[in-house]
Automatic annotation (TrEMBL):
Protein's GO biological process: DNA repair; DNA-templated DNA replication
Residue ranges occupied by any AAA+ ATPase domain in the UniProt entry: 45-172
Keywords tagged on the record: ATP-binding, DNA replication, Nucleotide-binding, Nucleus
UniProt-recorded name of the protein: Replication factor C subunit 3/5
Amino acid sequence: MTKKQEESNADNKMWVEKYRPNLLSDLIAHEQIIGTINKLVDANRLPHLLLYGPPGTGKTSTILAVARKMYGKNLASYVLELNASDERGIDVVRDQIKDFASTQKIFSTGFKLIILDEADHMTKDAQAALRRVMEQYTRNTRFCLICNYVNKIIPAVQSRCTRFRFAPLTKQQAISRISDIAQKENVECDAQGLEAIFRLSGGDMRKCLNILQSTTMSFGKVTEDNVHLTTGHPLRKESQLIVNWLFNLGFEEAFNNVLEMKNNKGLALVDIIHDLHSYILRMAINEKIQMFLMEKISDIEYALSFGTNEKLQLSALIGAFQIAKETHANKLDDVEKYMSVANYEV
Ligand SMILES: Nc1ncnc2c1ncn2[C@@H]1O[C@H](COP(=O)(O)OP(=O)(O)O)[C@@H](O)[C@H]1O
Ligand SMILES: [Mg+2]
């Protein structure tokens, strides 16, 4: 780390919090949603809200910015934020929310806001209880439910809210935000490094900022290799080697080589599979074989998510490539052409 970076790290803040957008205008993407909510707030006609979508897309930031806009300094006395995924039994809804919702400020005419973050973790019973509470206090309270999976919210509650879906940020949006923040923190980044951060985050801005910060802490400079090393993801040259082994070696040798690399570099099979996916997509082979490999690697990924044995899954992976290889070789006389596929760039 450079001296400047050290100084700016001295405050020891997570960048996710340090760069949380405070104003609605600070948020990138979701122009339409923000425009609509803005209009509703200005007209003093905010309905109950249900914000849903994948993590790190700005749901919590949006509602906090709305609250700040509506209440300014008085935020604390007008907003109840229930955050933890626990403490969501039926009693909390009944007591805590009722207490807050039923007290009215003397002299004030506006409504209060109750934010239920991670509402999809509430029990069905608690959601059912919420339905009544929402109706009872509509006169002076608005609810904002936030969740990742909208289908985990009971229909009766859904129908009482105006729903907004937060889509993942696009590559351009995410990358321009990350490079802005990198500039403010005096971090040197190259284009491949920024791309790698986006690729590994899957459109989750929280992940993007965390990877950016941890890469800076470990290496001071953001390059593709540094990002991969920080996150334990295979380096590009390692992925290329693995692809080469899978295509060109027999079962036993390929298995031993991959296993050795996996152990030496501490790689997770699931990360290797994610890289393979982009190789398979680019392969110039029979579509059926391509589909076969896709299906196999998705099965393996699924199995790995349940904590199954990595060695066993690795042998399934190698086996799938052996079958693909043989099928292909039997149909084509020009085997060499097929083998050269393995040298494709990601
Ligand atoms: N649309 C966005 N514009 C700018 N920053 C964002 C956006 N979405 C997420 N972020 C960044 O990611 C972090 C997490 O956002 P958050 O609102 O908590 O996401 P969510 O509640 O959807 O999981 C924020 O601190 C912010 O830095
Ligand atoms: Mg959130």
